[in-house]
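Lab notebook, bench 4. Still working through the backlog of constructs that have no structural model yet. Next entry is a single chain of 406 residues. Request: give me the structure tokens for it.
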Amino acid sequence: MFSVCSVPKALCGAGSGESIFVFFEFSPCLRASVVNKVLVSSSVSLKSQIIEINNLYENEMKEKHITIDGSQGEGGGQILRTSLSLSMCLGIPIKIENIRAGRKKPGLLRQHLTCVRAAAEICDAKVIGDELRAGRIEFSPGTIKAGDYRFSIGTAGSTSLVFQTILPALLQADKPSTVKFEGGTHNMQAPSFEFISKSFVTALEKIGHHIECRLERYGFYPNGGGQWTAVITPANGTKRLKLLDRGDLVARNATTYTSEIAMSVSQRELKKVAQKLSWGSHELTELEVEAFGPGNLISLNLQFENTTAIFDEVAQRGITAERVAGKAIKNLNRFVNSKAVVDEHLADQLLLPMILASGGSFITHSISEHVRTNIDVINRFIENAISVVDIDEDTVKILMTAGSRF
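Model written out:
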């Protein structure tokens, strides 16, 4: 685990009675020795001192690593993705064992292997074990590089989860990056492109980052073939994010996205929305989209003053249009009837960008096993980074300690 190092200004020849924070992290056992060695002389400039601290930090990290058990908690791919992101951003080598041990098909599938190789390309990492079905990898990160990248999964695997893995690192780069993705864009149990572009990215803009997302082609399961581009511009100084009040409802709408399926399916989905939510026809939109093969998704969008909540459901064989829409409606109603400001899925997505920026807090539903596992992994890298406070039976406040990394 790592924590921030506070140094009195007097030791840096910068006055007395106050402290500054050295912008690097050290294990507790290293903290005293590093500070004593580097900051003993006030005649050395602060810049030189920080450079030397950085060199000591990098040398120490080359000799250390964190071992992550991929079977912990819900035992899914999020453990891999979060560990890769933090390894890149913190410069910490990792070993991940029992990868996706909680799944029917454990080990690295195509989309998880793409995450590993994309992360490696972005930071010139040395990787051992990056092959299909692998249950263990070693990942030693190098320096994060901004640039133009292209990552193709080769299946209908979720491109949004690859995006989720590499985004924190590229938000720490020294200039913008452009990343092209190919694969699934609208998958079950993964954020849709609409969720990423309208909800997640909107929240990141409040931190100070700017991300432009452009969808070129939809990619539904099982054919995939979707294409989209993200232009990622890191913040020039981040802001602490607090999402503790939704604000007034500004807009709401339901949209269906359908390819090579009878439009009567989407019409039935929207009819269900109109019946159950009493939304008007001007709030209902059906779109016929271009994709490699059939597919359908319904997306319910609630735009508040301070946050945007999106509830998607992907159509499946053997499940009626009414049931598909009904699942999305149920999730929306749970959110609306709660005190939550951030929905369960956005809560999961925001943890890393917030903790790696300036911290903050938000109110969300009682956390799922998936979110709890994500928090546990983050706290494994950064000591006491995230805490959870119960508000009532279905609502919690999640706090990210300011300066837990910086």
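Notes after review: The chain has ten helices and 18 strands. The longest helix spans residues 46-63. Flag for follow-up if needed.
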